[in-house]
Write the structure tokens for this entry.
Amino acid sequence: MRVWWLIVSVCFARLLYGESESGLFLKGEEIFSKRCASCHQAYIPQLLLNSNYEHNNTDLNLTAPTLTELSFALKDQVGDRKGDVESQLMEIEAFLQEYISHPDSNRSIFPADVRKHFNQMPPMKLSEDEAEALAVYMRAFSEKMMVEHGVKRYSYAEALQKAKEEGKIIMIEGYIPFCRWCMRMDREVMVEPEVKAALERDFVLVKMNLLTQKLPLGLQHLGTPSFYFIKSNGKEVIDAIEGFGNKREFLDLLKQISADAK
Ligand code: HEC
């Protein structure tokens, strides 16, 4: 009886004090902006970062990696990236607590050719509660940036309607959550202004998780990332392409698809 009461009151307290995922996200955001943002900028487009590192950090003179880079690295390098989110969050929380109190280049989650541009981070104190909120915030941050800086995505039903009304091609991006080349596509290509302009002009985008969602029109799943193009009538497939393409290659593909759709 007592045990049940304890469980109920702990759950109630969690609800009451907003320890939900979104509550933790906001708390993490606040901690980050007070304690971390003086060194870690939020977001810089990945292609600018790539050339900055090629030029020995002389383009941008960054003090520390951006929060978006931290977010991708935490998600990719800490714990089991293919496992469930809750257990990875616990591993990220433990990593943050450990690293931030004892920064150590040997335990860095960054590749050496990025890490070498920065001094060691100074050690800081971080409570368990702070680490929990930061883990939630930092893990989710890169996805938030990709949505904010990328092209708007629709549900398939919305896309069908919009494509018909505006005479646009439906492009389905097939991904799975832990696919590295999908993340690279999102970071380096889908947020580039030229790519966004081409997509917004001729296409309506749908993003589908190929582990949980079924492609329309009997389309076969290809490996990820993959791109499935459907005519504005919603009935004919134009093409299905598998694999990463850099900005130039992807722009050429979009041009080709637009021509084929005519
Ligand atoms: C005084 C500047 C400064 C502040 C403040 C700061 N950092 Fe850093 N941080 C750095 C630098 C420089 C690096 C890159 C070198 C390194 O990895 O230690 C870094 C790296 C990191 C890394 C990657 C570690 C790795 O694997 O290499 C994480 C995670 C991180 N910081 C989190 C935080 C969090 C969370 C806060 C706030 C609680 C914070 N930092 C505050 C300068 C700072």
Remarks:
- The longest helix spans residues 128-149.
- Residues 156-261 form a domain with the Glutaredoxin fold (CATH 3.40.30.10).
- The mean pLDDT is 93.
- Strands lie at 169-175, 203-209, 226-230, 237-242.
